[in-house]
Amino acid sequence: MVLSGARTGAAGVAVAAVGAALLLTSCSSSSSSPDGSGKPEVAQQPKATDPFWVNPDGNAAKQAAAYRESGDDDKAALIAKIAEQPVGEWIGPENPESEARGFTEAAAKADRTALLVLYNIPHRDCGQFSKGGAADGDAYRAWVDKVAAGIGDRPATVVLEPDAVLHLVDGCTPARFAEERYDLLKKAVERLKRQPGVKVYVDAGNAGWQRPDALDEPLRRAGVAAADGFAVNVSNFQTTAASRDFGRQLSAKLSGKHFVIDTSRNGNGPYGGGDPKQTWCNPPGRALGERPTTRTGDALVDAYVWAKRPGESDGDCKGGPKAGEWWPEYALTLARNTK
């Protein structure tokens, strides 16, 4: 199975993120700039319910501004459903320290927490749509060290390596890479937790992939004991109810570890189209899910997060661009289908 969100060639994002902090306002709406320039102007959500940082210069914000500039207020309003919510910032392979610094500095200036996704494990995604990753273990350790240095003492919540554990469990990643991968994940948790403001959630797949009794030992080997918990449904479409049940069963096997749920695109649940690729790669008819919040009503669920950035492609299937690229048409569909 492939989970999307690969962020390649992301140099310069951190600079934009820092500059974007100047656009923050005190309300919770998205609108064009007062000078009529069309520059994205996106506010933060109330900190008490949603402490994560909204990037005012993200793809959705730029798209909404472009629609407003062209006079298409209906589409602007649809895309604003995405632009107004905090989403994960996927750290690229080239400039991890500057990107992590840029995002966390901008978030700190807004008195919010950056949500970061680390997705650079060697042999990533078994060579499928989101293939890539660090060249080897040494390169990965150096990359994680730079991410941690970039975060510094600022607050950040990190979702660690979507797919990495699950692709060992399901055999997609060859067994000869298992020992090194577990060690890399465990050491990544330990390195990130040396930063005083960092919370780390190790990816644990989704409710439609593997059963909890197949995952507890692999997650232990990946260092979940030293992490703040695990993440479920990253880039996937399982319902929040199913994800909560899955997470609670897994938590019971992991000494009560807490977890976060990616609700970015699960508003209509998973697609049942028969073709396996229909279920995860740009499936039709999906919708945005619950908005990000730390008030989940469940003591074990630390937050609903939008780790996947709604509107970014899962891969070059069904007419979509390559994994991680912004796809306005799909973004509009997600927003239109949202109740």
Write a structural description:
The protein has 339 residues and is of the alpha/beta class. The protein has a single domain (86-336), classed as TIM Barrel (Alpha-Beta Barrel), CATH 3.20.20.40. 33% of the residues lie in helices and 11% in strands. It is built from 11 helices and 9 strands. It has helices at 13-20, 59-69, 73-83, 96-109, 137-151, 166-169, 178-192, 216-221, 240-253, 276-280, 328-336; strands at residues 30-32, 40-42, 89-90, 114-118, 156-160, 198-203, 229-232, 258-262, 301-305. A 7-stranded parallel sheet has the order 3-4-5-6-7-8-9. It has a two-stranded antiparallel ribbon with strand order 1-2. The longest helix is centred in the middle third of the chain and has 15 residues, at 137-151. The radius of gyration is 18 Å and the shape is globular. The protein starts with 12 loop residues before the first helix and ends with a helix. 54% of the residues are buried. Mean pLDDT is 89; it is low at 1-39.
Please supply descriptive tags for the structure shown above.
single chain; alpha/beta; TIM Barrel; seven-stranded parallel β-sheet; two-stranded antiparallel sheet
Low-pLDDT windows of residues: 1-39
Reported by name, the CATH topology is: TIM Barrel
**Strand arrangement in the largest pleated sheet:** 3-4-5-6-7-8-9
CATH class: Alpha Beta
C-alpha termini separation = 28 Å
- Structural class assignment: alpha/beta
Strand segment count: 9
CATH H-level superfamily: 1, 4-beta cellobiohydrolase
Instruction: Summarize model confidence as the mean pLDDT.
Output: 89
Instruction: Please work out how many helical segments DSSP would assign.
Output: 11
Main sheet specs: 7 strands, parallel
Q: What global shape is seen?
A: globular
The radius of gyration over CA amounts to 18 Å
Total separate domains: 1
The CATH architecture is Alpha-Beta Barrel
Q: Helix share of residues?
A: 25-40%
Order of helices and strands: HEEHHEHEHEHHEHEHEHEH
In what range is the share of β-strand residues?
5-15%
